[in-house]
Amino acid sequence: MRSRADDAAKSRVLVIEDEPRIRSFVARALTADGYAVDVAATGTDGLQRAIAAQYQLVLLDLVIPDLDGRIVLERLLDARPAQAVMVVSCRSAVTDRVECLGLGAQDYLTKPFSMGELLARVKLRARPPGDAQAHPEIVTNGRLTLDLWRLQADSGNGPVALTRLEFLLLRELMEHTGHSVPKGQLLASVWGYDFDPRSNVVDVCIRRLRSKLGFELIKTVRGEGYRLSAC
After folding, report:
1. Which ranges in the chain belong to alpha helices (H)?
2. I need a labelling partner for 83 at 20 to 30 A (CA). Which of 53, 123, 140, 190 fits?
3. Domains of the chain
4. Could you read off the pLDDT of 168-193 as tens digits, one per residue?
């Protein structure tokens, strides 16, 4: 039977955290769980490391010296759109969480946190590098293809680049092809927070996807949500 450490083996995690005690605590726990861990204490150093090397996950504090964590997040995902980033911050305001998830972070954990929860979230987000068979890089639905690495979709007229939110929304719809997906579920899955269902952020993102991939691809189900048509 494989252990959790076996599953984590060779997965590399970068911890960008300026507080020495927390940085050391997290690094030791991740190492004990089987991850290869690098650390950085400043935004500039963390950004350089994250761009220069291949990490399965970056743990990013927001309040770090010389370069704000949100700037690090934005620049990192500009350089590596598919990079998995989990923000770990003392900032607990909804606006901070929403902003970081909107910029492309996959998760947001507030301090103080339990190490058990952190490790559970890391296990979910840090995919081992040899796991391509279990997690294919290309998802297809008839003539529609979604490139999980390049964040591109092709509905038959050539690949088009997607923003991270567009990508996450399309992937969620593809996982439920032919079925109506409630707006609340899309909000929770893509934006990572229980927004007011009356929010129009889903509608805006759907409009952008339709303009890029064709207006017949995504159907509106009145009173429910959206459905991706089987191609």
Report:
1. 4-8, 20-32, 43-52, 69-79, 94-103, 115-125, 164-174, 183-186, 201-213
2. 140
3. 4-125 (3.40.50.2300), 138-228 (1.10.10.10)
4. 889 889 888 889 999 888 887 776 65
